[in-house]
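Minutes, project check-in
Item: structure for the 169-residue chain
Input as provided by the requester:
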Amino acid sequence: MLELKTPLTEEETEKLEVGDMLYISGDIFCGRDAVLPKICQMCRDGSIKTSGIDLKGGVIFHTAVSPAGVGPTSSNKLEIESSFKTLSENGIKMHLGKGAIKPETVQALKENNAVFAVIPPVTALLGEKTLEQAVVAFPEEGMEAFHRLRVDKYPVIIAAAHGRSIYDE
């Protein structure tokens, strides 16, 4: 199984194919419905550059962070799926979540050399592989704040890459 560490490079992302299974280690961001529109607005207005949040080569996990742990939420919710293009344009290389995404989202990933990977909804397993967690923006959102996790070998499967989706096969 392939192992990648964050931040991801353009070259690493270019080599990923639909169906690849891999482990992700390093720092990843976490966000979902409540916070991703706010992060996208920061990207659009330029305030992301002065926030201390560096998305270049980043991975974003569509989840909330709670005392019970982390587990993927549906990536095809409007507030989440509409963030793929903006976040990819601003450096995110991998989006982690679950569920089928629209063909136009798959195309936006392709245009920005980014990928979508599904992650098993196994909260207990992910808890063992989460080394640190911190709120990096919007603490008022509670467990739906924008978090950074330090992880070790999160298991993922590439679901969309280079204009192809596992859901189209």
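Outcome recorded: Strands lie at 2-5, 21-31, 58-62, 92-97, 115-118, 130-137, 146-161, 164-165.
No further action items on this chain.
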